[in-house]
Amino acid sequence: MNPEIITSSPFIQAIRILSLTSISFLIALLLTPIVVKILKKLSIRKQIRTSEEAPIFSKMHSKKEGTPTMGGIIIWGTVILIAVFFKIMDIFFDGIWTQFNFIDRAETYLPLAAMLIAAIVGLADDVMGVLKLGGTKSGGLNMRNKILLYTATALLGAWWFYSRLGWDTLFIPFWGFAPIGFWYVPLFIFIIVASAFSANETDGLDGLLGGISLFAFCSLTAVAFALGRFNLAAFSGVVIGALLAFLWFNIYPARFFMGDTGSMSLGITIGVIAMLTNTALLLPFFVFIFVIESLSVIIQLISKKIFKRKVFHSAPIHHHFEALGWHETTVTMRFWIVAAIFNIIGIIVFFLSRIF
To answer: Helix or strand or coil: residue 344?
Structure first.
């Protein structure tokens, strides 16, 4: 039988993706104790913002001071490790290793590069936070510098898509592909910056961002698979496996925090995959909680600036619900439920738009 037919078989590809997801989960699970031990040994621990900066947040989360952070290394580190390992094995040994190699110029070069670049930037921010260096009282990069870095990364991606890959169309559900020309560049930048910013704002409770991201990557994996982008689906599957292992230890009470090295890499990668699958307009369904979190921050800032009063007890909105008396796990679980519902709606819209 023609090996290309076997490789392109949806059934074989499904087995391949599930296998890679399982491998990723097991490797991340084994790496986690080692990474946590190193973080503790190096005293890489969370610094809680001072009461002057965020009094309500400080009061609710002061007990978490000193918890190891930068746990996002487990997620992107596992993904990069698996990608490089199977690429090398494919180069030197071929055979079955080809089935596990998901590095592909057209599908996974950009998300892998974006994940690594964002992870490194986030890592630097986390280190600055631990050392109390940077533009904020508690250390780390201020939001203006973060957005500039998000934009720089997005510009690189926009150039790759528009100039090198020739992408200039937007898929509108139930309408079709609409050519938007150069406007594709600012759209790409907005999606990436918004995804990164929103992920960063969502990362505030044990297991919250990890769970929301898990739902989003599951949806994007299904989309990539349906579009026949099997290497991209495999990449997303590896991220899912690493996220599951991360959540095993990160659910309340968390043994460590994700840190900006995790939130930045996840947010930007989600945005890049949405652009690769041309589902930018469905992204608000896949990351609905991201949207709500970002809006709450923007509304709070505008209200304080113009009206000199707060709309929420604390922003992002997950802290508002904490201030109302909801337990941290209650907020997380309810946000997970809402995220799951909107991801299901997004997937339904995606498949219906392909039919009609």
So the answer is: helix
36-to-8, 92, 131, 346 alpha-carbon distances in Å:
39, 33, 18, 36
pLDDT, tens digit, 9 for 90 and up, residues 129-139: 888 776 666 66
Is residue 229 within 8 Å of 277, Cβ to Cβ?
yes
Q: Is the pTM of this model over 0.85?
A: yes
Q: Report the alpha-carbon angle 279-122-201, nearest 5.
A: 60
DSSP readout, 145-192? HHHHHHHHHHHHHHHIIIIIS---EEEETTTEEEE-GGGHHHHHHHHH
Query: What's the confidence (pLDDT) of residue 59?
Result: 62
Nearest to 241 by CA among 114, 76, 87: 76
Nearest to 213 by CA among 257, 263, 168, 167: 263
> What DSSP letter does each residue of 259-273 carry, written as one string?
-HHHHHHHHHHHHHH
Residue pair 279/217 in contact (Cβ under 8 Å)? The answer is no
Q: Quote helix, strand, coil % in the chain, to nearest 5.
A: 70, 5, 25
| Beta-ladder partners of 178 | 170
Which tokens in the block code for residue 265?
Answer: 């890499």
Q: Cβ contacts of residue 349 below 8 Å, gap of 6+?
A: 173, 282, 285
CB 353 within 8 A of CB 279: no
Residue 203 and residue 189: Cα distance in Å, rounded?
A: 22
The whole-number pLDDT of residue 93 equals 86
